[in-house]
Amino acid sequence: TFTKKLKNQIFIPTFAKSITDIKASLSILEEIIAIGYEPCLMLVIKNGLKGLIENDKKEQYKNLKTLVVQYTKKPVIVMLSNFPLEEIDFLENSDKTIKHIKAGIDFASELPIGGRKIVTFHINTWISQEEFHATQEKEWLSRFDKAIMPSLLKISEYSRSKNVEVKIETDPVPVFGDIGNDDPSKYRGVRLNELRNPFLLTHGWGFEKLRQAGLGICLDFCHNRTIYKTIQQGDPDKVLLPFFLKKLKDGSLLDDLNDLRASDIAHLNDGLGLYSKSGSTFKEGVALGEGDIENLDDKIIYLNKIKIPFAIEVWDSDFTNRLETKRSITYLSRLNF
């Protein structure tokens, strides 16, 4: 917990295999203290399972041990890697996915720093457009309970045995809508920006499923922004099941925010643009105040009011100087509470 005098807890991403990156993160922590927040670290894992075990694990622990006295018992987040894609695919590779996530939970539980330990990841359930449209929505919703929920329950049980909290990161629509048509990358033979996710994690559906499994929520602002922007201004029939169109047509990011609980967390960022088949893409992880999320100030003030900790997860063009992160901190410093 943190004192009432502090506005909130802010997590700064860091790659613990790099001492240079850790030092860059520490310099930012000082800026966070200066504007009245408690600074914490979000450890970004790279290279999937490999980044959580053996030499990679030992190297990160070695670097983090230098922070033991300084970091004390502050909470720490471990954000699992989304790549390689096949290592975290709940529909096609559930056994490999569970192995990956259990390794992430072990990594968090054994960290040499921190008190509250949190692991976050995406529930990747990617399919082709053909699969998306060929299957009835009732079958998709039933498939979540039959194919996804058992894995989530196993993960939840394991995390409790290790005293680690698990929060599920919310997804954008479409899941790789920030990738243009000029990118040839594929997964299971499908171009990344043509992959579809039949399951959305929102206040209207999804959040309660996670809670039933004993898991928490990591609300990514720029991701859930795309859901409501697509419904209001895009071509939702191509990327959303009719069930979600009906459920969420009058909804907003604010509704998702209002549905969070004190134990949940958020990825705070801005977003811009929309994906379309013609080639336009959206931008994720935009610096705060530089995107088009409406009433962002009010949403941040609400996060602080209900003490939902958040990570500043923006895309830094220069990972040494972290200019976009620093601009986001400046944005936070100007808010009136």
Total beta-strand segments: 12
Distance between the first and last residues' Cα: 20 Å
User: Order of strands side by side in the largest beta sheet?
Assistant: 1-2-3-4-5-8-9-12
Helix content: 25-40%
Number of helices: 12
Biggest sheet: strands, sense, closure?
A: 8 strands, parallel, barrel
Percentage beta strand: 15-25%
Mean pLDDT: 95
SSE run: EHEHHEHEHHEEEHEHHHEEEHEH
What Rg, in angstroms, do the CA atoms define? 19 Å
Shape: globular
Residue windows where pLDDT falls under 50 for at least 5 positions = none
Structural class: alpha/beta
Describe this structure in words.
With 337 residues, the chain is an alpha/beta fold. The protein contains 12 helices and 12 strands. It has helices spanning 19-34, 54-64, 68-71, 94-109, 129-134, 137-161, 207-212, 221-233, 242-248, 253-258, 296-305, 323-333; strands at 9-14, 38-44, 76-79, 117-122, 165-169, 186-187, 190-191, 216-220, 265-268, 270-272, 283-286, 310-312. An 8-stranded parallel barrel has the order 1-2-3-4-5-8-9-12, surrounded by 5 helices. Strands 6-7 form a two-stranded antiparallel sheet. The protein has a two-stranded antiparallel ribbon with strand order 10-11. Helix 4 links the parallel strand 3 and strand 4. Helix 4 (94-109) runs parallel beside helix 6 (137-161). The longest helix has 25 residues, at 137-161. It is globular and about 55 Å long. It starts with 8 loop residues before the first strand and ends with a helix.
